[in-house]
Amino acid sequence: MKVRTSVFATLILMSEVIGIALFLRGFFPVPIKSSLASKNSLSDLPAEPLSGSSPNTTRLPHPLFKRVVIMLVDALRDDFLFGPNGGTFMPYTRHVVERSSSYSFVAKARPPTVTMPRIKALTTGSIPGFIDVVMNLNSPALLEDNLIWQAKTAEKRIIFYGDDTWVRLFPKHFMEYDGTTSFFVSDYTEVDNNVTRHLDSTLKRDDWDILILHYLGLDHIGHISGPYSSLIQPKLMEMDDVLKKIHGALISKEAEGSLPYLLVLCGDHGMSETGSHGGSSEPEVNTPLVLISPAFKRKVGMEKPGVIEQVDLAPTLALGLGLPISQNSVGRVIPGVFQESSLRDQLRFLHLNGHQLNCLLKDSMPSYEKEAGFEQYRVAEKAHGNWMKLYFEGNTSEVLSNMGKKVLKQYLEALAALSSALSKQLGKYDMYSMIAGMVFVFQLLMILLLAMPEALSADAAVDLPVASALLSLPFYLLCLLLASVHVLVCTSATSSCYYCTLSWGLVFVVVAFSSAMFCILISMAVRRLSLGLKYNGKSPLKTNVSEWSLSELDVLLLAGTVGHTLSLAASSFIEEEHQTWYFLLNTLCLAMFQDVCRKYFREKSTSKDEEDCLLPSKDCWNSALPQPDASSEKWLALATPIFTLVCCRLLRSINQTGVQWAHLPDVGHWLNSSEHRTVLSLLTVFCLVLTYLLVQRRCSWVSKVALAFGLVGVYSYRAAVGNVIFPWQHSSRTMSKGTVEARFVYVFVLGILFSGTKDLLRSQIITADAKLKSRGLWEIYSGLVLLASLLFRAHNLPVLCCCLLIQTLISQFIWKKLHYDAAQITIMHYWFGQAFFYFQGNSNNIATIDISVGFVGLESYVEAPAIFLTALSTYAGPLLWTCHLVCYLSSERHRSPVSVGHGCYCLALLRSVPAAVYIVLVTVLRYHLFIWSVFSPKLLYESMHLLLTAGVCLFFITMEQSPRKS
């Protein structure tokens, strides 16, 4: 059965998406959950252990606290309080930590360090999965057992003010609440004032038991200007004043003989060196936890804060309020909180915590008896029973006290072991689905490889032996074998997998399709092998050896792409992937320099060749500049690769990225400091002017005027938000949101895009004018450049400017003069796009995503434009290079034949190789938790870029490779 090349490639890519989706379904971990559908209740709590014939008791310790106030400051790093500047940032809190009745800890949050998963961890004690990063945008109601539900069931009256994520997670749980939008990061003032305005009236009332305050201003400042901004100290002092007000109100209302209060100061996550969060660096996972209560001993000096897990707060608060611990909690109680209780109560608290962890261990691990914590808990429980027997016998000797302390230590060791075992089991990998998806993808890749010669032949069609494969005996035997394997796996597996939950009809379709692909693959391999032996031993492939010969540049491009693919097998190469692309880009520049030298100094071109070489440049650029003569053209061509190398080296110093060296100072930090604002302003003006000169040459006069006004609006926006200054502007002017200025730019962006789209549609519908079509594409490209200049931070405008300059010089003096084909140009665009992704300061870590750009020009949170602007800013580098590829190939197509060689199709194949190879290696190596934080956005980005690049390749393959006579 013959199918056209474009149809064949499209079907393969669509099938590949299905295979990758099946793998991802097994690759992302399923969080640990108890098998019990119900929630814990007081009636389910175990009795106190007691040995002998005496009846045991179900006595529960009395609650330790009457009221609890939880003050959660979003993105509060531990060094903001415990660091050397803690006394300046939060003086009252620091005094309480050093001299008052309190306990202070560094609470480690588990990645992903995003707000919604952290709230779930604080209230359930469980470790959320990475799928919660996506759900963070629209949090559903939390249905699993949690502290808030237990408190409401116990008729605790709960009041909440702050981030509306809590309201979505716990609907109808609060007696009173006032939620604020957490995603509008441009607001760091009103978002906290809306919380504080309720305090005075609430603290005077006695009709509540739990008060939760979630402040967002600090997190928003981090997203806007980073952890070293001048706005950080005033915001932390504001939070310090809030805590002082709460603490004073609680002290004044403390009644003699009643249960004490508990004031909790904590952060949900920290803040990276760039002000974002989501990854697993130390500043992101280390948060302060301060517990303040008159029930604790009074300190006499500053002590080094202990280190605990963030999930330990949930069981501590539950037992402190006399509530059951949540079923899915993997945390352990904080021992210091219960030190003032009797020894019997302390042992009872630890016993309840151990029982809950032990039950969760049994539910989540089939081989739980082999875990050290399980045996340790049994020993501690038995010793606890012996202690209880002596206690009830009235033994008051020192032996009882020493024995109790020994049991206490055994319990603590057992809790540590149980919590550690459960924390390591962050999810249950669905290996069967992973292997099925991996095999599926590799079958498709092999079929692509074997079909490539036919797909790129003169007929532009692929002959797939579908009928012979479906009617062959191996097909039916393979179907029977795979069906047997499926039955065997699904009936013997200790835990269910996604693939086993599918209906038998759907499974049979998948099995038949996979078997058919394997038989087609074998048939194509046999046919390809037999072709080499026909025609008296002369292979037909040898007749086209010139068509398939690879130049040095081809070898570099293919070897570099494959080398990058193989580098993804190591976690360090994922963390520091930018180094790989910097190396490949430098090597590519040297290879282009070698080709230029070979052309102008070693090869003798005929006058006709020289005429053909200069011909495309006559009409390609609608430039007001005079065309260079042959001599100057030669030297400009020689200088272009060297200039590109210099630009790339300078761009590397603007933003530190990756993981290991991201904390080091860079040029961006220097430019953003207040004392260098004048330098940044001059640099911004220079970059905007150069951007206009580079972009306007291909536009109509209307778009030129709109572009000029738009770039002026970009500078005005940056001045409004305080990044740059006008000559007449005072440097200490109060910053604004720049909403009017940003919307002014949006008007011109839409105008340019409308003008370009109109020209493009006219060229396709009304008149077949190739120049009009080319101008329309370039105008759309210039509109995207204007939008990117608005979204880029001021110090990143040189990245955009260098991107445009390199595109102009290389296309003018390298690609056209050296007659590179579309395949080579496509892969070069891909390399440059990847490198510029990292030049922007991005990395494979979620924390480097700048979500503040999603609110440029917005006065409130609107989901669709916020997501669009954030994605466009993050992937502006690859997007601009891909758009430039489409514009360049389209404009060159009607002037000179653009050779769409085998490289374009190779690229569509190679873009799917990284994901497939990475799948295999991750399956074997089973990386640690940190790799999740760098892999999850990486795979999404790679999949997106795969479809985008493959779409460009297929577009030009379809245009150029229509059936023709050989």
Automatic annotation (TrEMBL):
GO terms for molecular function: CP2 mannose-ethanolamine phosphotransferase activity. Gene3D superfamilies: Alkaline Phosphatase, subunit A. It is a multi-pass membrane protein. Pathway: Glycolipid biosynthesis; glycosylphosphatidylinositol-anchor biosynthesis. Keywords: Endoplasmic reticulum, Glycoprotein, GPI-anchor biosynthesis, Membrane, Transferase, Transmembrane, Transmembrane helix. It holds the Pfam family PIGO_PIGG. The keyword Iron does not apply. The chain crosses the membrane at residues 7-28, 431-452, 464-489, 501-526, 678-695, 707-728, 740-756, 866-891, 903-927, 939-957. It comes from the Eukaryota. Its main location: endoplasmic reticulum. It is found in: Endoplasmic reticulum membrane. GO terms for cellular component: endoplasmic reticulum membrane. The keyword Transmembrane helix applies. Residues 545-942 form the GPI ethanolamine phosphate transferase 2 C-terminal domain. GO terms for biological process: GPI anchor biosynthetic process. Belongs to the PIGG/PIGN/PIGO family. PIGG subfamily. This is Phosphatidylinositol glycan anchor biosynthesis class G (EMM blood group). It comes from Takifugu rubripes. The gene is pigg.
